[in-house]
Write a structure and sequence with these properties.
The model has no long low-confidence stretch (mean pLDDT 97). Helix 1 packs parallel to helix 2. The strands form four sheets. A seven-stranded parallel sheet has the order 5-2-1-9-10-13-14, with helices on both faces. By secondary structure, the chain is of the alpha/beta class. 41% of the residues are buried. Strand 3 and strand 4 form a beta hairpin. The protein has one domain: Rossmann fold (3-Layer(aba) Sandwich), CATH 3.40.50.10680. Bound molecules: guanosine-5'-diphosphate. Guanosine-5'-diphosphate binds next to helix 1 and helix 2. Guanosine-5'-diphosphate (GDP) binds next to helix 1 and helix 2.
Length: 306
C-alpha cells in the first residue's frame, strides 16, 4: 500500500529538519506535523511557542540556517532597546520574529485557538502542509533540577543553558489533544517520530491526553529517528538528560524508551540498537538535500511495512 498521508511528531530544530525533508517529498496537503507545546511560555506578556515557530519557519524556508531557530536575515534592535532600559534579555527575540509573538498573543486574547492561529500564519507563509499544536490547552513542561529547584522549561533550557542536573520532568496542566490532531492520526497511513529530544520534545507530545494510547493502538506503521549518533546528541542535551534520568543514552535506550510505540528505529550506520527492528542509514542532516534523502528513505521503508 502506498504511504499517502503521513503524521510526524516534532519538537524544534532537530524535528523541523526531518519535517522539512518529508514536506519536500510528499504532495501538498499530505503531511501533518504535530508539534510540542510544552516549551511555550509567556515572556514580556507575549505568548511564545518556540517549537511551533521553528517548524513553521523551517517549512516556510525562512528559518535561520545557522541556528535552526528564528528567522533568516533577522535584526536585533528591539533587544538593544530593552538593554537600554536596563533589562538583561536572556531569551532572544528578533525584530521580525516578534511580529509572530505579538499577533499570536493578540489572537489568543481575542479567543482564537492556537490551532487556528497556526493555520492562519502557515497559510500566510504559503506552507502547503499542516502544522498542528499537540493541544490548545495550557500544558507546560516543568523541570526539577538539583541546583535550582523547579524551573519552567525555557528557564532551564535557555536561561540556564541546560546545565542544571535534571531530577524529574513533569507537566503543568491537564490537556487534551485537539480534534484536528485526533482526526489526522485516524487518517494517517504512517507515523514518523522525528529525531527530536525524546524526553524534552516527544514525551510532552505523548503526554497530552490520550496521545500515547492512540499511538500504541495505531493500525499503521510508526518509526522514530534517533537524535543520537553513537550515544551523542547531534545537538543539545538529549544524551545528558537521558543519563540524568536513568535512561541508557544509546539507541538501545531509545528503542526501549519508545517500546510499543514504534515498529522500528532509524539509526546511523554501525549504531544499531540491541533490541527491536531498525533501519541503518546516514541520519545526520547537514543540508536540505540530506533532509530530503533521509525523508525519502524513511517513506520507502514505511511503504515496505504497509
Ligand atoms: P529543540 O526543541 O529545538 O531542542 O529541538 P528538537 O528536540 O526537535 O531537536 C533536538 C534534537 O535533534 C537533539 O537531540 C539533536 O541530537 C537532534 N538533531 C539535531 N540535528 C540532527 C540531525 O541532523 N540528525 C539527527 N538524527 N538528529 C538531529
Amino acid at each position: 500500500m502506498a504511504v499517502k498521508n503521513v503524521v510526524a511528531l516534532a519538537g524544534g530544530v532537530g524535528g523541523a529538519k526531518l519535517a522539512h525533508g518529508l514536506a519536500r517529498c510528499l504532495p501538498p496537503g499530505h503531511l501533518t506535523v504535530i508539534v510540542n507545546v510544552g516549551d511555550d511560555f509567556t515572556h514580556y506578556g507575549l505568548h511564545i511557542s518556540p517549537d511551533l515557530d521553528t517548524v513553521m519557519y523551517t517549512l516556510a524556508e525562512i528559518a535561520n540556517p545557522q541556528t535552526g531557530w528564528g528567522l533568516v536575515d533577522e535584526s536585533w534592535q528591539m533587544l538593544g532597546m530593552l538593554e537600554k532600559y536596563g533589562e538583561t534579555p536572556w531569551f532572544r527575540l528578533g525584530d521580525r520574529d516578534i511580529a509572530t509573538h505579538i499577533l499570536r498573543t493578540h489572537l489568543l486574547t481575542q479567543g482564537e485557538t492556537l490551532t487556528a492561529i497556526v493555520r492562519k500564519m502557515s497559510q500566510a507563509l504559503q506552507i502547503d502542509h499542516t502544522i498542528l499544536p499537540a493541544t490548545n490547552d495550557h500544558f507546560a513542561t516543568m523541570v526539577d533540577t538539583a541546583e535550582h529547584g523547579t524551573l519552567v522549561f525555557q528557564h532551564y533550557f535557555v536561561r540556564h543553558r541546560w546545565q542544571p542536573t535534571v531530577t524529574r520532568i513533569w507537566y503543568d496542566g491537564n490537556a487534551t489533544i485537539t480534534d484536528e490532531a485526533a482526526y489526522v492520526l485516524e487518517k494517517a497511513d504512517a507515523i514518523v517520530i522525528c529525531p527530536s529530544n525524546p524526553i524534552l520534545s516527544i514525551d510532552p507530545i505523548l503526554s497530552v491526553g490520550d496521545m500515547r494510547d492512540r499511538l500504541r493502538l495505531r493500525r499503521v506503521p510508526c518509526v522514530a529517528v534517533s537524535p543520537l549518533i553513537h550515544g551523542k546528541a547531534v545537538k543539545g542535551p538529549a544524551d545528558k538528560i537521558m543519563r540524568e534520568l536513568g535512561v541508557d543514552a544509546s539507541n538501545t535506550g531509545i528503542a526501549r524508551y519508545y517500546d510499543r510505540l514504534i515498529d522500528a528505529l532509524v539509526v546511523d550506520k554501525g549504531d544499531a540498537p540491541q533490541q527491536g527492528a531498525y533501519l541503518e542509514t546516514n541520519i545526520l542532516m547537514l543540508t536540505p538535500a540530506d533532509r530530503e534523502r533521509l525523508a525519502r528513505e524513511i517513506l520507502q521503508f514505511l511503504e515496505g511495512m504497509t
